[in-house]
Each structure stands twice: as C-alpha cells, then as structure tokens.
Design brief:
By secondary structure, this protein is mainly α. It contains 21 helices and 2 strands.
Length: 396
Amino acid sequence: MPAFFALLAIALGVGVFAAFQLRAETGYVLVSYGEWVLETSLLGFIAAVVFAVLATFYGFKLIRAGVSLPGRWKSHHERRKADAAQLSFERGLLRLFEGQWKRAEVELIRRASDHHAQHLNYLAAARAAQRVGAPERRDAYLARVREIAPKLDFALLLTQAELQRERGEFALMRDTAQSLRHKDSSHAYAMELLAESHSELGEWAGLRALLAEPTSRKALTPARWRELSSQAAIELLRIAIGAARLSELKAVWESTPADTRSVAEVAREYATGLARLNADSEARGFIEQQLAKRWDDVLVRLYGPLHCEDPVVQLATLERWLQEHGEKVALLETAGQVCIKNRLWGKAKSYLEAVTATSPTPSAYLELARLCELTQAPLEAQAHYKRGLELAAQPH
C-alpha cells in the first residue's frame, strides 16, 4: 500500500510538471492504424499511457490476489487453528502443574490433532489420566503416541515406566525398564528404574546381577549403588539363613563386593547367619576380625552366646576389649554372660551390676536374674526380673 501511494504521488508530480511545461503549447499526437485514427493532445496521450500502465499493473495484481485468495484464506484458517491448539496445549500443561487433572486432560486432547507436536499433548494427557485413575485412557494415549511418533519410542517407554511406578505396577515397570535398557544399556535412569523394580519385587538375585554390571556404578550415584547393593546382600543372606544352608550363606558373602561387605548391617547379618547355623567357631573369628576394624555393639552382643571349646579364651578376648575400648554397656553385658557360662559367679555379678549402676538395660537385669537363679537366690532374682520389666515398659 505505501508503494501505491508513492507511485501515485510520483505520477501526480510528473503530471503537474508536464502540464506546466505544456501550458502554452498542448502539442498534437496522431496515431493511425489501418482505418483507425487517434488524435489527441500530448498531455492527454501521456496521461493515457500512464493510466494504461497503472491499470495493467494493478489489474494483474488484482487477478493474482483473486487467484491466491482461497490459498491465503486456508493458510489463515490453519494458522488460527494452530494458534488455538498451542493455546490449548499451554493451558493443559498449566492445569497439569496445578493438579487439576481432569481439566488438564480435556485441554490437552481437545485440540491435539491441530497441534504441531501432538505427541506432547498425548504424553501429558497420559500423565493426567494416570492421576485421575484411568489406566485405560492412559494406555490409549501412549498407544496414540506410538502411532504418530514411532521415533520417540524411548521417551514413550520412559514415561510408561514412570507411570507404572506411580501405580505400583512393578512387574510391568520391570519389563518396560528392560526394554529401555535394550535400547540404551548405559542409560542411568533406565537402570535406576530396573533396579527399583527388582527391589520392590524382591528379585534380589536379579538386582545383584544388575549391580554387578560395570556400567551400574557409573549410572547410579555411589550412595544409591551402595544402598541397593547392601539391600540385595542382606536379603540374600536372610534367604540362606531361612533355608538353613550354610554353604549358600558363605557363597553369598564371598560374592558380595568388598565395599558392600564393609557396611555394618551386611556384616551383622552374616555374623547372625553363622551363629544361627551353628558355625560358632567361624562366627567368633569373623566377629573378632570385624571388631579389629571398627567397634560394633551388635556384633559384641552376638559374640557372647557363641559356643567356644575353651570359654576362658573367649573371656580373655572380652577382657582385652574392655581394656582397649573401656567399659561399654554391650561389652560389660557380654562379659557377664560369658562369666556365667564359665560359672564365674562373682565376676559375672560385678560386670552386670556395673551396667545397672550406670546405664541399666532390661537385658542386664535379665542376666542378673538368671545369675541369681543359678546361685540359689530366688527372691533377688524376682527383684531383678521386676526391675527389668519396669525398665522395658518405660516409653523410649
């Protein structure tokens, strides 16, 4: 439009200039063609030529505009639909973030077919359907994504695994995570999802095998890897203990990574297993090795009831620990138990009374009661039982 006005102004300027120059002499133009003769003034001829040029130019523009009008109208209509679809998508995402699941789902699918990235609409709609407890619609949206964007299979599987985790569908989550790992075996999040599914399903052998892969330490954070490895080791040890298979217990321990064996809970479980499966000699040696590395009250308490061919040696070990670590409650109680086994009544009483005098525990009173029964002091035993029960009943 500005070009038209500029051209018009130039034409008017030329016309005014020509009229001024030809004010005294208008000139004469004669055009003959066959029987046709055209006579006009020079000014009229110039004006006619200018008019014809302008008419021809803008006539062609008008015709072109008329021919392109349907396409332009269609393009304008498509653009309006795309803008509306984008607005609906943004509203749907906002409702999803606000926790308005039903409204989010409606907004996300209402104009999904008009959106340039409709797979995003359906992925988000699947999450909204998950929140309102509609797994059928969720799966339908995910299937739609698979149809329209097969190249986004990895993102689709990842979304599917997350939604399955939210609903506690851990068996399905495991299968989906395995599919993800087939596509990218080193993907950190896929490995985390697979490890979590093994843990939730109690598939400890599968979890241990997964964590044994070299890529697992890179994919998972050190803290997460250590947590899962410890959990798998503890549960496998418990399975062996429950089945009363000592060889399996030892095999699990030997195959456990060194940094996992250094976890206190794992070492305690192995020591407990050795004790329960009557491998007392091995349990004593194991506990002594562990306590040489770091102190652990739980292992000390496990040490006392273990059978020893020479209880004097066991008591000597405890007394050495008392000298090295001081009069710890667990150590004093254990020393008292071993003295009772050795029928050293006086020593046993002094150790146990040292506990009740400073940091009384129900177990210390129980051992004192047992000692009194063994030494024919029933009234004193009853008093210790009573104090132990009172202490155990107190809120912690």
